[in-house]
């Protein structure tokens, strides 16, 4: 069996973390790099990623997370916060980065920049926010896969109140909205979920071959 499939069979949505075990700084950097390398539409990465280790902040977030213990027991809480609106600055900064990274004349990128703006700015603010929120799921996928390879437990969570997260973390002032949460750390030996068989649709029900 391929190592990737073995890692996917190993991982599960951890329900109880061991609060005494912390993710090392080295492994955290690897996870950050995995998130950084995630694919996104246009390569724009229209989000920020908050990495929360401060226990006091975790305690504040607990009631807004349906009092799920993972928030306070995990080593780190990772909040994927999407841009609520794309403006000229976001796209201009993106193309400035392309020009610098690839040693290009930014004037040569003007046509593609104008094209991108025409497509994104044609969306309503609501549709922009929906689109940017979807991009965070791509980044989450990279995090989950990298964590499994490092044998770090990770739990994706949609069970939280975004508005309260936005307030606690002052996200609105940054044109951001809490889209997704993931907790990372190490499973507690008393977490019964780790012993359950993984339940998935059989392949003949999941896939349609044309």
UniProtKB/TrEMBL annotation:
**InterPro entries annotated for this entry?**
NfsB-like, Nitroreductase, Nitroreductase-like
Q: Which residues form the Nitroreductase domain?
A: 10-186
Cofactor(s) recorded for this entry are: FMN
Q: Provide the alphabetized UniProt keywords.
A: Flavoprotein, FMN, NADP, Oxidoreductase
Record carries keyword Flavoprotein: yes
Keyword Flavoprotein applies = yes
Family assignment? Belongs to the nitroreductase family.
For this entry, the protein name equals: NAD(P)H-dependent oxidoreductase
């Amino acid at each position: 069996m391929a190592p990737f499939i073995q890692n996917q069979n190993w991982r599960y949505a951890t329900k109880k973390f061991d609060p005494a075990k912390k993710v090392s700084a080295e492994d955290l950097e690897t996870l950050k790099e995995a998130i950084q390398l995630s694919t996104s539409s246009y390569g724009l990465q229209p989000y920020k990623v908050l990495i929360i280790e401060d226990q006091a902040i975790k305690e504040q977030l607990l009631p807004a997370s349906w009092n799920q213990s993972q928030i306070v027991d995990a080593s780190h809480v990772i909040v994927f916060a999407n841009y609520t609106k794309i403006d000229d600055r976001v796209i201009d900064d993106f193309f400035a980065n392309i020009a610098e990274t690839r040693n290009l004349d930014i004037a040569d990128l003007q046509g593609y920049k104008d094209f991108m703006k025409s497509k994104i700015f044609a969306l309503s603010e609501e549709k922009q926010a929906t689109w940017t929120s979807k991009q965070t799921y791509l980044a989450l996928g990279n995090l989950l896969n990298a964590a499994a390879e490092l044998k770090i437990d990770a739990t994706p969570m949609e069970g939280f109140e975004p508005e309260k997260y936005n307030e606690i973390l002052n996200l609105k002032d940054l044109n951001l909205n809490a889209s997704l949460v993931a907790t990372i750390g190490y499973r507690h030996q008393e977490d019964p979920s780790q012993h359950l068989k993984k339940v998935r649709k059989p392949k003949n029900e999941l896939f349609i071959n044309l």
